[in-house]
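This protein record is not my work; I was only asked to verify it. Where you disagree with what is written, explain briefly why. This is what I was given:
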Amino acid sequence: MLPSRWYAGASVGALAAPATIPLLAKSLGWEMAFIIIGIVGAAHQSWSANIFSTTGDMFPKSAVATITGIGAMAGGVGSFLINKGSGMLFDHAANLGEAFQFAGFTGKPAGYMIIFCICAVAYLIGWSVMKTLVPKYQPVIVK
């Protein structure tokens, strides 16, 4: 059984993830944006620290580097896809102009709003996937 500090850390990361939701708010001024970005950065660091400690807690020493590498590759592919998709979305929004609308925004700002909405739920989706793949936090035993 894994130590309770791991479970507590994962819970804190999952609870900190909704800190990205304020990004859905309309313009609140640069001061508030600065504070929100700081909170989101802290939440991301909490998530990252817990994800990287998961491999060390669950897998034997001989497999930690391999598992971390697979996760890093998946992150790289995911980054490529989200950046490519965002660029295509922004181009599409710019081409349509005022005809492209989402959540009260038009044109390119509507495209940014869509991306911010994706960011707001990405950590919750990631946590759900992790919880589905690893329902019980127990070390993996390699025979």
